Amino acid sequence: MQYRNSFLWAAFVILFLMNVYLMYVVQQIQQLQEARVTVPASGFQNPLDNILLADVSGGTGKGSSFRAFDKGLFVNTVSATLPKPAGNSFYEAWLIKEQGSYGHPEVISAGKLTLEVPEDQYWVSMFSSQTNYRDYASILVTLQSSDDAVPQAPILKGSYQQR
User: Fold this and answer.
1) Contacts (Cβ under 8 Å, ≥6 apart) of 78
2) For residue 101, what are the contacts with CB-CB under 8 A and spacing of at least 6?
3) pLDDT tens digit string along 33-89?
4) Are 71 and 43 in contact (CB under 8 A)?
5) Which runs of consecutive H residues, i.e. helices, occur in 36-150?
6) pLDDT digits over 132-143, tens only?
């Protein structure tokens, strides 16, 4: 009889602890759902506009880019896994409109890439503007030796599909 009471007591404690844990998990899920940032699909011209960037330098770099235009704000992000450049060189992202004025490409700097996770060689740049640059369908990441408005050594490149 004592063995049975001990067993029932242990089963009660286990069920109680499982119930407390389950309530904790449900609470955490609710908090995550409340904190989640939602993207209104109707506000974006194309909410899933992202591409992979391929290495064009013969190296092992890789990357991706995301862009969106919503409520008068164009945003383009570039993330890449690249080795640390030598000396004072740096990586820079560029937006390229292949058929610009007079048939020549137009290029706009999307900013220098910053090293976000050194141990993974993970670089990021974020560009925003009130101008919609969706016609600039190519993304180029270059290795720059000087801070000017001219793309230098191409490292990664990708293109969004024109819609």
Assistant:
1) 53, 63, 64, 65, 93, 110, 113, 124, 125, 126, 139, 141
2) none
3) 554 433 334 344 445 588 999 999 999 999 999 999 888 899 999 999 999 999 999
4) yes
5) none
6) 998 899 999 999
